[in-house]
Description:
- By secondary structure, the chain is α/β, with parallel strands linked by helices.
- It has 2 domains: 6-128, Response regulator (Rossmann fold, 3-Layer(aba) Sandwich), CATH 3.40.50.2300; 143-396, TIM Barrel.
- The protein has 16 helices and 15 strands.
- An 8-stranded mixed barrel has the order 6-7-9-10-11-12-13-14, surrounded by 4 helices. A 5-stranded parallel β-sheet has the order 2-1-3-4-5, with helices on both faces.
- Strand 1, helix 1 and strand 2 form a beta-alpha-beta unit.
- Helix 2 (38-46) runs parallel beside helix 3 and helix 8 (204-224) runs parallel beside helix 9.
- Ligand C2E binds at residues 130-131, 162, 178-179, 190-191, 195, 211, 234, 236, 266, 268, 296-297, 320, 353-356, 373-375, 380.
Amino acid sequence: xxxxxxxxxxxxxxxxxxxxxxxxxxxxxxxxxxxxxxxxxxxxxxxxxxxxxxxxxxxxxxxxxxxxxxxxxxxxxxxxxxxxxxxxxxxxxxxxxxxxxxxxxxxxxxxxxxxxxxxxxxxxxxxxxxxxxxxxxxxxxxxxxxxxxxxxxxxxxxxxxxxxxxxxxxxxxxxxxxxxxxxxxxxxxxxxxxxxxxxxxxxxxxxxxxxxxxxxxxxxxxxxxxxxxxxxxxxxxxxxxxxxxxxxxxxxxxxxxxxxxxxxxxxxxxxxxxxxxxxxxxxxxxxxxxxxxxxxxxxxxxxxxxxxxxxxxxxxxxxxxxxxxxxxxxxxxxxxxxxxxxxxxxxxxxxxxxxxxxxxxxxxxxxxxxxxxxxxxxxxxxxxxxxxxxxxxxxxxxxxxxxx
Length: 404
Ligand code: C2E
Ligand code: MG
Ligand code: MG
């Protein structure tokens, strides 16, 4: 299902513009605005009445072109999603896609014109909540900065836990803490609607602290029960700008009575590679404090072997796009296989994310991947459901619970 978003389409060719609008309408979107160059885009963004949650932007427009427009969107800290489109070939498109990410905008997709309906649909579906169906989900719309400020005061942040197991023994080694946002109406808002806004409005540290506090409380509880498990927390690149992050997190772990060595911090590859030097200091000091570090969504960024080998990182987490369906798709399989080999050759543990089938599990095991996380094991669950789940798992896989 596609989320009900306010969308802006920018293209200087009126005919193409109308075709794209029509495709969007076929996908059920109704709140669609039009612009014919970058100036039109910015006018639409600057007006709170029309500010879009998603922009589809042509790269080569008369007037202000798409490339320049991206720079202005970045300067405005535009928090919505961006799809870049081009009719000038794949090379131009990949440059534009790279720029979107370099500007720290929320990159959704790069589409070659003429736009393929299915590619467009898949891109839009990425904005829609994946995950547990237990609670009604609030789909699509980004939260406003004020709603986030209010929610932070009202305990809207909640973590869900998704288990990680070893492939060899199917032993549970821990869980990743994923942010969920409880809206005033009781629905659950996914991280994609919260994180980019929080990053753009200086609220990302407060968000991390909320998630981290809940995650280490779980860890302390497990450790008190003698369970040798880890908890992973996602750290945004913007969080690494806080130079006292290592001390702050270590103090929070200590206050909760949790051992720092049970905490894994996941940092997304693409963002990490944008600013490797500035973040290197904080990353190194996090490592020195005893946190374990993981490169998340590996394969989606542009990490060179050289940069990668210099990072004091313990774990590579292969992006789900290469994991899911890798048992049937040759290209995914090749990337998966070489990522596992690369991780191991750098002495890292390799985790596959997003395994949805037993065939995926079997292939990962054959390729020598160390750990796996995915719907085939368990979907993310409310934190208080984790220990009961663990008991069921341990019963069904007798003797494999680490530490037991
Ligand atoms: P991520 O860190 O790569 O987390 C994995 C995402 O993949 C989660 O989505 C999880 O629900 C989903 N997933 C896991 N296994 C499967 C599977 O088998 N199939 C499918 N279709 N999906 C699977 P979620 O919870 O929506 O989180 C999305 C992203 O939001 C995360 O990706 C992470 O980058 C970010 N995020 C989540 N929580 C936080 C947070 O506390 N702080 C920050 N900065 N980012 C967060
Ligand atoms: Mg993660
Ligand atoms: Mg990931």
